[in-house]
Design brief:
The complex is a heterodimer of chains A (293) and B (157). With 293 residues, chain A is mainly alpha-helical. Chain A has 13 helices and 1 strand; from the N terminus they run H-E-H-H-H-H-H-H-H-H-H-H-H-H. In chain A, helix 3 packs antiparallel against helix 4 and helix 8 packs antiparallel against helix 9. Chain B has 3 helices and 8 strands, in the order H-H-E-E-E-E-E-H-E-E-E. The chains are: A mainly alpha (293), B alpha+beta (157).
């Protein structure tokens, strides 16, 4: 048995050393080419690669900005917590609804609806467990810490921010970048759905500006989803729905002009008609319904 | 029981050895992000990005577009200790395809030896983080860089 153990160990070390050797040889090969380049008097011009990636904001940040616009709370808008059991049919369904519940949690949190926030935290934990995110929710007895700090608003936000950080780490460790992007698309859809419905009800100009800020995120979401299009079959359909919303947003006359001039948009003074917002809100609602049903 | 332990240890050795081959040993997302998060305080965590840096024959650039909300104040922190060879960080107001973009920050100006640094920004919807990756030298290997975005919150105050 000891001999077998030694054999396997030696084999493992040999495999590693062989691989290291190959890696060194590759490096040497490339260095030789570099020397050859120098000998041929080829200038070492920097090869600027077109490698771009996107860092998307969190659902918490979107909800914080939305709350600052003075928007009211409407308890009928967030997704039903009891729907969690419906979302174990695919990675896409779990991810998109994990994002939706994250947005609902953030919306309740910044409106100081703490019992509801706790329920949505639970919904996030349950959908998150379908994606292998258990560890992000299990450290340090989350529910108890949430209860203990419920009177300290800043601490409650810190607890949820910390869960967000742990979730991001788990996505990274599990090599689920595409799932993180799908989840963000879910969070964005829910946030935009809530913002558009609140605006249509309240007709508050600051809420409108916040809604338009959220709509500006459609372009980077499309770019991020395109870079993961082959990862999940449902991404293609998700992409076409967000592209439709984005074209409706870009068709707003004031947005169109700003885009043509490549100007930074001042969304607080932008002229937008109710009909334009209704068109967008219907598309957002249709996408959201397809996600939660 | 003893019969199981030895093969199990062997499998663990193989897996550990394999993990050293792909360069991921340096990219411990948890440790790097936890370190970065300590520099955020009192800003609240918003998002973060771990970028894998591959040194090539010639200088190369990796760009990350960071999305922000225009009325908010942000702190962006960088954790660069998992890079075997120094990479310059530049922050721009526009992407690398834009002709008239302005550089807002360079780690070269901050402190060449620093592995951790930060930058504060407001009144913009985008910043572009460019990693200027120097050419490969014999003995250099791959690594990763982390940045983290925090926002200033007045909630609960």
């Amino acid at each position: 048995m000891t001999l077998k153990f030694l054999t396997v160990s030696v084999l493992a070390i040999s495999v590693t050393l062989t691989s290291c050797k190959e890696s060194t040889e590759t490096s040497k090969g490339e260095t030789s080419e570099e020397v050859a380049d120098t000998l041929n008097n080829t200038p070492a011009v920097a090869e600027k690669e077109q490698e771009v990636s996107y860092n998307l904001p969190s659902a918490l940040q979107i909800a914080y900005v939305f709350k600052k616009s003075g928007a009211g709370f409407d308890a009928t808008l967030p997704n039903n917590k009891a729907n969690v059991s419906k979302y174990n049919t695919s990675h896409y369904k779990s991810a998109v609804n994990f994002g939706i519940y994250s947005a609902d949690l953030s919306y309740c949190l910044f409106n100081k609806k703490y019992p509801e926030s706790k329920d949505y935290l639970k919904a996030c934990k349950e959908t998150g467990s379908l994606l292998g995110l258990n560890q992000a929710f299990e450290s340090g007895d989350l529910a108890n810490r949430f209860d203990k700090n419920i009177t300290n608003e800043d601490s409650v936000v810190k607890i949820v921010s910390n869960v967000q950080l742990k979730t991001d780490v788990m996505f990274e460790q599990n090599k689920q970048k595409h799932i993180a992007v799908i989840a963000f698309a879910g969070a964005w859809t829910e946030s935009t759905y809530i913002a558009s419905q609140v605006y249509l009800k309240e007709k508050n100009k600051k809420v409108l500006a916040s809604l338009l800020e959220e709509l500006l995120l459609a372009t980077p979401i499309i770019k991020a989803l395109k870079s993961h299009e082959s990862s999940e079959p449902e991404i293609t359909s998700l992409l076409s729905s967000i592209e439709k919303i984005n074209s409706e947003f870009n068709a707003i006359a004031a947005v169109k002009t700003a885009l043509e001039k490549d100007e930074e948009m001042d969304l607080t003074t932008m002229a937008v008609t109710d009909a334009e917002i209704k068109t967008i809100s219907e598309s957002v609602k249709a996408l959201r319904t397809s996600m939660v049903d | 029981m003893k019969k199981i332990i030895k093969p199990l240890v062997s499998v663990v050795i193989i897996l550990v050895c394999m993990s050293f081959q792909n360069g991921d040993v340096l990219c411990d997302a948890k440790t790097l992000k936890e370190k970065a998060s300590k520099m955020l305080n009192p800003y609240k965590y918003d998002s973060s990005e771990l970028t894998r840096i591959l040194y090539k024959k010639k200088e190369s650039v990796k760009e990350v577009e960071v999305l922000l909300f225009i009325g908010e104040k942000y702190r962006v922190v960088f954790e660069m200790e998992a890079l075997p060879k120094q990479v310059e960080v530049r922050i721009y107001n526009k992407d690398k395809a834009s002709k008239n973009r302005k550089m807002l920050f360079s780690s070269k100006d901050a402190n060449a030896d620093k592995k951790e640094f930060q930058f504060e920004v407001s009144k913009t919807r985008h910043i572009y983080v460019d990693y200027i990756i120097p050419p490969l030298e014999e003995g250099s290997y791959n690594g990763c860089a982390v940045f983290m975005v925090g926002y200033k919150s007045s909630f609960g105050k």
